[in-house]
Amino acid sequence: MKEIVEKYSGDSNILVLVLDFETLDCEEAVATSINSSGCRVLSTKHSELDKLIGLRLAGVDKMIKGRIREVRPEEVRVAFEFQDDVACEKRKERRRPVSIAANVSASEKTKFLKCKIVDASLSGCRLHCEHLEFLSDSIILKIPGMDLPVRGCIMWRSGNYAGVKMMWQFSGKTEFMAAEKIKPPVPHKKGRLENGQRVMKAQKSSPFGLKRGH
After folding, report:
1. CB within 8 A of 209, min separation 6: which ones?
2. First-residue to last-residue Cα distance in the chain
3. Per residue in 121-163, pLDDT tens?
4. 72 has pLDDT over 70
5. Least confident of 35-39, 50-54, 172-176, 196-200
6. Distance of CA 103 to the CA centre of its chain
7. pLDDT at site 110
8. Alpha helix segments (H runs only) across the chain
């Protein structure tokens, strides 16, 4: 099994989903210069030095936690913070107000209920749901822009509001280095002919399930 560093070091461009833990916004970007300690992310809207973000590379099932260490005009340098690292920086979390329509359920096999996330941070969020009584303390959240559901635990309830601890599934360094299915973006070959030229059909969604505008 080849290591990621051997396969994608240098200038290989890999499609990546960037998650802002403070707002739960998702953004598609391109990662390059991937190694065991970090990578460069191109054309990202994030420009706050020392900001903690989540990265999900196409082909890797778990998210990687990263911190922005350098900001340049068209890219940022991100240092990975793996789940199994012994030394982890502890910082006081900021909780920011958001308004995100999401779906919540007690399990993937039960009916999902509509809810709204009203504030968020790295460790959790506060949500509003009209039928909290139907939910157990262990829940699953489906957040727009994220192709993988997030598990959570309800820590408190008050009326139609609940405080949720997010159980993010971060990758460990050994697991990350052993991944072998990362694929760079590949253009589609399908299209139609117009005046002898092949016109490519625009993709309606990304490999991560994000809907694209027209």
Report:
1. 145, 146, 147
2. 40
3. 888 999 999 989 889 999 999 998 887 889 999 999 988 999 9
4. yes
5. 196-200
6. 17
7. 84
8. 4-8, 173-178
- The string over 60-82, giving b where at least 16 C-beta atoms fall within 10 Å of a residue's C-beta and e elsewhere, is bebbbbbbbeeeeeebbbbebbb
Domains of the chain: 4-83+170-178 (2.40.10.220), 96-167 (2.40.10.220)
Sign of CA dihedral 183, 61, 57, 86: negative
Which is nearest to 9 in space by CA: 34, 31, 29?
Answer: 34
Alpha-carbon gap, residue 123 to 120, rounded angstroms = 8
Contact 122, 93 (CB under 8 A): yes
With vertex at residue 106, the alpha carbon angle to CA 123 and CA 154, rounded to the nearest 5 degrees, is 35
d(CA 169, CA 125): 16
Structure tokens at 33: 């210069």
Determine whether 168 is exposed, middle or buried from the number of CB atoms within 10 Å of its CB (0-12, 13-18, 19+): middle
Mean pLDDT of all residues in the chain? 77
